[in-house]
Amino acid sequence: MSKGNHIIKGRGAQLNVSNKFDAQNHEYRDDFLNYCALEGEEAQDSKTSLIDTFPKTIVNKVNSPDIRMGFSLNPYQGCEHGCVYCYARNSHEYWGYSAGLDFEQKILVKRNAVNLLEKKLQSPRWEAVPIVLSGNTDCYQPIEKKLKITRHLLQTFLKYKHPVGIITKNALIQRDIDILRELAADNLVHVNLSITSLDEEIRRLLEPRTASVKKRLETLEKLSSANIPVSVMMAPIIPGINSHEVLPLVKAISEKGALGVGYTMVRLNGAIGGIFTDWIKKTMPDRADKVLHQIQECHGGNLNDSVYGRRMRGSGTIAEQVEQQFRIARKKYLSGRVKPDLNCHLHEQYKNGQLKLF
């Protein structure tokens, strides 16, 4: 498990928690960890491995009333970005892995994603509605630079004139501005760029393998300059860590061309509660208890709240203060900016990948 106060560089989670679906689990004994430390050895391999998968479907219906998307598509499962708070960690348990380090180190690659999407878009029964890339894990995580699955998916959306949304915190999206510009010309794309903090040190600790704050602001500006509709998600808000940054962050993104801003309050559901607690006690020991208590205050005394309509925004004084800050920030810095509706009317004419003349 964890190695005392030793920090695993380049990773968010500092341990592998037990998979709730496993009948058995294992842990690293202190004598073994001490031996590894004395010998200068790692107790476990920290390298990233890719695991090829070939699912039967790729477009997922989203039933949560709290999430503003009807369908999502994730070319990868697991995410090397390593954001310690990530709600998607729990989904890795369904694949037989841990929500901890396994989530960051064992990346499942859906090699047939493009073919499955094309088959879906060609189906006579499919009626165009926005499909969001990265409803679960980031479609622009590091391995995308080599594999280009997301780029090929975007080319497919363009070919069939189908609306697509993107959520990412990686500057790699700049590579695909050529395709995004063409999609935007027909109102077929929205981008949500995740920027959690303006503090690079906080970014490095919370999200170790993501793009820097500077690169994300640069990405925002370049997308906006290319007339690609882009908004920002400040998610999650973690009281005691980034909750004081609402106004300065919204001011900064308004200057770079953002059309809007959204947020969620952190909630540490499932295995994430233990992962986050272990992480903050190692990386921020001086404020760990304060932060954890403030998170609990936002969720009725717990680290998580699963009640629809409340779980994403929280409750109590701190949550209300955050909501008020966003209301003020939007009015002051983003007033009058409107994100265009995605166009769902072109696709039917391009069911076969080309314009139907009759």
TrEMBL record:
Coiled coil: none
InterPro entries recorded: Elp3/MiaA/NifB-like_rSAM (IPR006638), MJ0683-like (IPR040086), rSAM (IPR007197), rSAM_sf (IPR058240)
Presence of the UniProt keyword Glycosyltransferase in the record: no
Pfam families reported for this sequence: Radical_SAM
Keywords: Iron, Iron-sulfur, Metal-binding
Keyword Ribonucleoprotein among record annotations: no
Domain of life: Bacteria
Radical SAM core domain residues: 65-310
NCBIfam families listed in its UniProt record: rSAM_PA0069 (NF033668)
Protein name: PA0069 family radical SAM protein
UniProt organism field: Gillisia lutea
Lineage: Bacteria, Pseudomonadati, Bacteroidota, Flavobacteriia, Flavobacteriales
